[in-house]
Design a protein that fits this description.
The chain is an alpha/beta fold. The protein has one domain: Rossmann fold, CATH 3.40.50. The protein has seven helices and ten strands. The chain has a seven-stranded parallel sheet with strand order 1-10-9-6-2-3-5, with helices on one face. Helix 7 links the parallel strand 9 and strand 10. Helix 1 packs across helix 2. The longest helix has 18 residues. It is globular, with a radius of gyration of 17 Å. The structure holds 2-amino-2-deoxy-6-O-phosphono-alpha-D-glucopyranose. The site of 2-amino-2-deoxy-6-O-phosphono-alpha-D-glucopyranose has 14 residues, from helix 5.
């Protein structure tokens, strides 16, 4: 694992955006894997800035999101689909047909999961996968457990995640109890992985991810097995490393 320690959130966002820009200039039809949450917001803002300055062209870029709440439609303001369009895609020249996000209101979960996996394959696999990390070490919505599903699947959210994510909802009761997520196997197939972590709350999970034993109770620790992972952490998140 390659660890980049930066001073603060701003620097983390600049570094992350720089990696995206360099990747797209090398390969115009790059396949990106993208996360949601608070952490990548600064990176998305910086990418929008660079796009407006004419420095990045997203017209051939393809994206796959990590996960989506089960039961939320793309129009729901707390859906990850809505988040991605509002915070990023509406502000760059990406083509709608090149954006892929699991369908949270699918009638056939099994079929949707299989379809998502096959689409990633069809597009040539993910070149560059960005990740955030849950306070409990989850990746996407792969929650700590004694065993994990490798492929895209429907997952029950843990109480810890429901509580952590309730900050984005009016009421904790409104937080969906299930989500569709890429599996750890899907994620590990990406050619390159960049994990972003900022703030003291992430410090214990980051320490276990980097220095702990590989185990499914800390899904992020599986990343130790990948050959091209970079973790960009600010001072606070790197406190225990
Ligand atoms: C959610 C998402 C994850 C994300 C995590 C951390 O549960 N499913 O993909 O990494 O939260 O979010 P934040 O960056 O807001 O701390």
């Amino acid at each position: 694992m390659n660890i980049i320690k930066v001073k603060n959130y701003k620097e983390l966002s600049m570094q992350a955006a720089g990696i995206v820009a360099a990747q797209i200039s090398r390969k115009k039809n790059t396949v990106l894997g993208l996360p949601t949450g608070q952490t990548p917001l600064g990176m998305y803002q910086e990418l929008i800035k660079r796009f407006r300055k004419g420095e990045i062209d997203f017209s051939q870029v393809i994206t796959f999101n990590l996960d989506e709440y089960y039961g939320l439609s793309p129009e729901h303001p707390q859906s990850y689909n809505y988040y991605m369009w509002q915070t990023f895609f509406n502000n760059i020249n990406i083509k709608k047909e090149n954006v892929f996000i699991p369908d949270g209101v699918t009638k056939d979960v099994q079929k949707e999961c299989r379809y998502y996996e096959s689409l990633i394959e069809k597009k040539g696999g993910i070149d560059l996968q960005f990740l955030g990390i849950g306070d409990n070490g989850h990746i996407g919505f792969n929650e700590p457990a004694i065993a994990l599903n490798s492929k895209t699947h429907l997952v029950n959210l843990s109480q810890a995640t429901i509580e952590a994510n309730s900050r984005f909802f009016n009421d904790i009761e409104d937080v969906p109890r299930k989500a569709l997520t890429m599996g750890m196997g899907t994620i590990m197939k990406a050619k390159q992985i960049i994990l972003l972590a900022s703030g003291m709350k992430k410090a214990p999970a980051i320490a276990k991810t980097i220095n702990g034993k590989v185990n499914t109770e800390v899904p992020a620790s599986l990343l130790q097995l990948h050959r091209d992972v970079t973790i960009i952490v600010d001072k606070d998140a790197a406190r225990d490393v």
